[in-house]
Amino acid sequence: MEKKIESFGQLDFWLLPAGILEVRSAAGLEKNSPLTLAEAKKIEAVQAEYHRESGRSIRLLVRIDNMTNATKEVNAFWKTAESKLNDPDTSGIALLANNLMTKMLGAVSLAINRQEYPTKLFQSREKALKWLESLEER
């Protein structure tokens, strides 16, 4: 069963079966503003808290279907050591993009921000979840 564990800014954080974390646009938001630095840091904090409390690897599904872009500060943050603190505990991240614009945004993001763990872009939530479930604990 899915369980909403937190909300922050324009984001909702959900815990899914099989220990997968999902980041979604907050309920009721049809179009988001650019992702803020505070929201990016909150994404990292929620992952760290999940790993600390559960002892499990991080498997993250990020729904970018309503996201427009990220601020310059966010793009710079993803390259810092602070944003990499969860990397050793991360099994993989799936980005879910269901339209051409967000698919392009996701592809650019994956190309620019290479990670030590598997990352993949999906158009199907079911395929993304299946892929995340197949990843081994770290």
From TrEMBL:
Residue span(s) of domain DUF7793: 30-135
One Pfam family, short name: DUF7793
Domain of life (superkingdom): Bacteria
InterPro entries tied to this protein: DUF7793
Protein name: DUF7793 domain-containing protein
Record organism: Saprospira grandis DSM 2844
